[in-house]
Amino acid sequence: MFRGASKVATLLAALALLIACSPRLDWRTVQSPQERYTALFPGKPDKLERRIPYIDQELLQTLEAVKIDDDIYSVSTIQLPASQSASLSKLLSQLQANLIDRAKGSGGDVTVEDAFYKTADRQRLPIKDYFLDLKVNSNPQQLMRVRWINRVGPTGDTWIYQISVLHANAGNENAKTFLSAEEYENFFSDFSPE
To answer: What is the b/e burial string over 44-73, where b = at least 16 CB atoms within 10 angstroms of the residue's CB?
Structure first.
């Protein structure tokens, strides 16, 4: 009888360890050759495409995103034709202002930090990370970390990437502190445009 109870206890302990070791995040490398990047997502992302109006034309925007609990990990890509390259800074400013103005308009905070990203050929290039506290009734409700990267492709087209994580139900967490944790840092540090 003692031997049977010992086997049951051992089996239960092994099952508990297996459950405890079961990762919440299922990290996988996602290659997007059409959008010219490789990213490490914490699960299988869904892919959406839409056309967005911009200066008398429509630009194709591609979004790959995955939701894990209260977090949405996403990479948005816009291809700006070579003939429109002069409007790059205006488009980037518009993309940034949409989020930053929303955060500030809610009474939230925006923190900007220097960071680096690496290209497919392993170059380390400087970039800015934006940490946003989005508030409702003066309480943080959502936290966001976002960076914008632009790269010129072989045909002269410019690729604009918005890499972001949005965390809901934040409570009183600080965006920079919370979204600098390893699980979020992996997503940002392992994004590589061509």
So the answer is: ebeeeeeeeebeeeebebbbbbbeeeebbb
Nearest to 63 by CA among 73, 53, 49, 52: 49
CA 160 to chain CA centroid, nearest Å: 14
User: Is the CB of residue 132 less than 8 Å from the CB of residue 103?
Assistant: yes
Which domains does the chain show, CATH number per domain?
A: 25-193 (3.40.1000)
Q: Which residues pair with 109 in a beta bridge?
A: none
* Residue 74: closest CA among 65, 83, 82: 65
Quick: pLDDT tens for 101-132. 888 887 888 999 999 999 988 899 999 999 99
